[in-house]
Design goal:
Chain lengths: 224, 475
């Protein structure tokens, strides 16, 4: 199941949609802004890995729950596309907002996470952001991060990976409260670029931290 | 003792002479330290009972630091919490004092019994004041019933020893076998109870070895007790012979019955697993029928009205999500749950999406109820006047519980709200102030955000419980 539109160097962002529901794929395709070109689609883990390797899109819109593979869904696609992680960015999509689904795909390498109820404009915005190398945090993902890392700021430098700095905590809190990046920047008197830097730093910590508490938090929610 | 005030936990104090045991004990019991120290010294003279009691408490009772460290996970000593908080409630007034005092020296009866039994003897009349019929319901209902039973057994042993010292003839020849039979049966039955519990929870093989050992120990005790009683002579040679022959008979019977028993057991397990699966499937089918199919039917009938369809879909989504992912036992009565319920109500009544994100959690109290009410009012305002989705964020830290309600409406000037408009002024700001909290409203042209903050009051009993659950939630 792959209708690859090879050739025609598109000016916009090339995306691959990976979701096992054909209705959702076509709906999403119709919702995306015109500057975002859907270069391929896939419905299973195996198809997705093959299509992504062939098309090499800028962004993959990846459903967390997928048939096939080792039963890990979106995580298996990320594992199968590991060599491409430098050039292709993954944005996770899910109907579920359960912590285990969200955090496991983020830790597997996705650059952001949004729920499927998101509007067309918002998802186009998220795709552009991810394509630009930034991270996309929904309020709920920010909530999970605060829950996992705790709400006390880091005071010493050597546990840098294991805790959020005071500024990063502020940014996460505002995102959890429903602020957009623009509103966060305005509230904290910083530029949007700085907000994006903070969010990317948090994403890196979430992906790389082997913090004892985070591991335990994850284990308790059966993430590992 | 007129009111059942929760005692401070039994921990070793910092103002120590030796190990802080007396100071901790005095604080826990509410007695003067000097009296406790004097009592301990006098008890030490009585055959060393006080020394044994002191050493026992030294080993079993944690220091304040240790206790705080372990507090989040488990009570450090099973005795310490048993004597403090959980006791006060189930006890009838007149007996509260004697019983709490009596359980204390009870374990000291062990060393005391062998040396002079001063502590044990002093405690026995107190324990006797509790009527026998109320005993059983209490012991089974208590969390630390096992420890209390053990203490009672030790007290009994101490009493028998004292009686012997005083010259009363106690027929030990019959008492010991009877005690062995009772003890063995108790061990075996405890095992039965636990295997049933384990069967429901999970079946780890690691527990099984201990279980078998316990069953074997129980059986050995019962068999030897019966043999000694039946043989009557008490002669070791005869007892050995009888034991050997009975073990041989039992072994033969077991050899014959083992394959049959194993097969029966496996069939039973397979059938049980099948039944569990069938029940699960039936439950899922019933739930889907009751909720999802009904909603889908409703949506088809109202297909023309977009607001209705969205509202139905949101409500159904929320319900299904809660059923699939929520752990009802864990979250019932928690602040986050109440906030989510309030958000769901607003969503249902106004048809506006309300997204809730929570970080940390704590148990509900009366003050938190006010916080939830104020938050509900803020959500109602946001859904009525704001445009788009309403974002609700709850954060519970050690210091306070905070709720943020944000909308994307045109905004308004909080100072320009007329005095007769009760919504904001009374239901949000006034309510929060009355309960020691604060409410600030920040409105710009991009939207309005209501910030509610409720500090955790120091000293309230609910505050301590909340710290625990919060600590667990946050890790």
């Amino acid at each position: 199941m792959s209708n690859t539109e090879a050739g025609s160097p598109a000016p916009g962002i090339r995306v691959v949609i990976v979701d096992d529901h054909a209705i959702f794929r076509s709906g999403l395709k119709a919702d995306l802004d015109p500057d975002i070109v859907v270069a391929g689609e896939a419905g299973t883990v195996e198809d997705a890995v093959a299509v992504i390797a062939a098309v090499r899109p800028d962004v993959v819109l990846l459903d967390v729950h997928l048939p096939g593979g080792l039963g890990g869904g979106g995580r298996d696609v990320l594992a199968g596309s590991a060599p491409l992680l430098g050039s292709t960015r993954f944005l996770a999509l899910s109907v579920s907002d359960a912590a285990e689904d969200v955090v496991s795909v983020i830790r597997a390498g996705a650059r952001g996470y949004v729920t499927k109820t998101i509007s067309g404009a918002e998802i186009s915005d998220a795709v552009r952001r991810v394509a630009g190398g930034d991270a996309v945090f929904s309020p709920r993902l920010a909530g999970f991060v605060l829950d996992a890392f705790g709400t006390a700021p880091a005071d010493i430098a050597d546990d840098e990976l294991d805790r959020l700095s005071a500024r990063e905590l502020e940014v996460m809190r505002l995102i959890a409260r429903g602020y957009s990046y623009k509103e966060v920047a305005k509230e904290l008197f910083i530029s949007i670029k700085t907000v994006e830097t903070h969010v990317s730093a948090v994403l890196r910590k979430l992906q790389l931290s082997s913090r004892h508490e985070l591991t335990r938090w994850a284990a308790e929610r059966r993430l590992l | 003792m007129t009111t059942a005030v929760p005692r401070p936990p039994l921990v070793r104090g910092s103002d120590r002479v030796i190990a802080g045991v007396c100071a901790g004990l005095a604080r826990h019991l509410g007695w003067p330290v000097r009296m406790v120290r004097l009592g301990m010294a006098v008890a030490a003279l009585a055959g060393g009972a006080g020394v044994a009691f002191y050493a026992w408490l030294w080993i079993m009772v944690p220091t304040a630091d240790e206790s705080a460290k372990r507090n989040a996970r488990q009570p450090a000593s099973p005795i310490a919490p048993a004597v403090s908080a959980p006791f006060a409630a189930p006890l009838a007034e007149p007996y509260a004092a004697p019983l709490t005092a009596a359980t204390f020296p009870a374990p000291a009866g062990a060393p005391g019994g062998t040396t002079g039994a001063a502590a044990g003897a002093a405690a026995t009349p107190l324990a006797g004041t509790v009527p026998a019929d109320t005993w059983r319901s209490r012991v089974t209902g208590m969390r630390y019933g096992k420890e209390i039973l053990l203490g009672a057994g030790l007290l009994l042993a101490a009493g028998i020893l004292i009686a012997r010292l005083l010259g009363v003839d106690v027929p030990l020849g019959t008492l010991i076998p009877v005690a062995a039979i009772l003890g063995g049966a108790a061990i075996a039955w405890m095992q039965l109870d636990e295997t049933r519990r384990a069967g429901l929870v999970d079946k780890t093989k690691a527990d099984q070895a201990g279980g078998w050992a316990r069953l074997a120990a129980g059986l050995a005790l019962v068999v030897s007790g019966v043999l000694v009683m039946v043989s009557g002579s008490g002669s070791w040679e005869q007892t050995w012979l009888a034991l050997l022959s009975s073990v041989a008979v039992l072994g033969g019977v077991a050899l014959v019955l083992l394959p049959w028993g194993l097969k029966f057991w496996r069939d039973l397990e397979a059938e049980r697993a099948g039944r569990v699966r069938a029940t699960e499937r039936a439950e899922i089918a019933a739930h889907l029928h009751d909720s999802v199919l009904q909603t889908l039917a409703l949506i088809q009938r109202r297909a023309g009205n977009e607001t209705d369809v969205v509202r139905l879909a949101r409500a159904q989504e929320r319900e299904l999500r809660g059923w699939l992912y929520r752990d009802p036992g864990k979250e019932a009565g928690q602040l986050s749950e109440s906030i989510k319920t309030a958000a769901a109500d607003v969503e249902d009544s106004l048809g506006h999406a309300v997204d809730v994100v929570t970080v940390g959690d704590c148990a509900m109290t009366e003050r938190h109820e006010a916080l939830v009410q104020a938050a509900r009012e803020a959500m109602l305002n946001a859904a009525r006047h704001g445009g788009g989705a309403v974002s609700v964020y709850l954060e519970v830290t050690d210091g306070a519980a905070e709720v943020f309600v944000k909308d994307r409406g045109p905004g308004f000037d909080p100072d320009a709200v007329p005095a007769d408009r009760m919504g904001v002024r009374e239901s949000i700001v006034g309510r929060m102030n009355r309960h020691g909290g604060t409410a600030t409203i920040n409105s710009t042209e991009d939207g309005t955000e209501v910030r509610l903050r409720l500090p955790r009051s120091a000293g309230a009993p609910a505050g301590a419980a909340a710290t625990n659950s919060n600590g667990e939630a946050k890790l």
